[in-house]
């Protein structure tokens, strides 16, 4: 459930980042390369988090995917915070919570066919 929330939060933050970037461009302001990087990475993170969340209880590959998504998402959120998107700080906290929860959870149930 938390992973689904994280996916939704990443998507929401991405929308805010796109709108803010467009506003900066419309006013002739420079947009750093790090912002462009985050604009590409955030939707990928949102999709990967949703896939991991949907598969976490039934697929053994979902736990490492979830942790990898959260680590990359945390790095992307940190870049966002440092480039002026302060609301991305919530994503960092959420990523850490998800990593702890996924790491502490019991063994993943084997997939049923």
E-strand count: 0
Number of helices: 4
What does the overall shape look like? Answer: elongated
Rounded to the nearest angstrom, the radius of gyration is 15 Å
The major sheet is characterized as: none
Taking pLDDT < 50 over at least 5 consecutive residues as the criterion, the unreliable ranges are none
Question: Proportion of β residues?
Answer: under 5%
Q: What level of helicity do the residues show?
A: over 70%
Structural class: mainly alpha
How many domain modules? 1
End-to-end C-alpha gap: 23 Å
Q: Spell the H/E element sequence.
A: HHHH
Lay out the secondary structure:
Elements: H1 2-26, H2 33-55, H3 62-82, H4 89-104
Helix pairs in contact: 1-2, 1-4, 2-3, 3-4
Explain the overall architecture.
This protein is mainly α and 113 residues long. It has one domain. 75% of the residues lie in helices and 0% in strands. The longest helix is centred in the first third of the chain and has 25 residues. The radius of gyration is 15 Å and the shape is elongated.
């Amino acid at each position: 459930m938390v992973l689904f929330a994280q996916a939704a939060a990443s998507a929401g933050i991405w929308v805010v980042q796109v709108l803010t970037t467009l506003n900066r461009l419309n006013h002739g302001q420079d947009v750093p390369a790090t912002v462009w990087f985050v604009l590409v990475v955030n939707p990928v993170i949102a999709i990967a988090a949703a896939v991991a969340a949907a598969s976490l209880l039934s697929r053994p590959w979902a736990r490492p995917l979830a942790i990898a998504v959260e680590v990359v998402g945390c790095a992307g959120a940190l870049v966002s915070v440092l480039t002026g998107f302060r609301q991305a700080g919530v994503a960092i906290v959420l990523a850490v919570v998800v990593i702890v929860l996924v790491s502490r959870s019991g063994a993943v149930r084997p997939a049923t066919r």
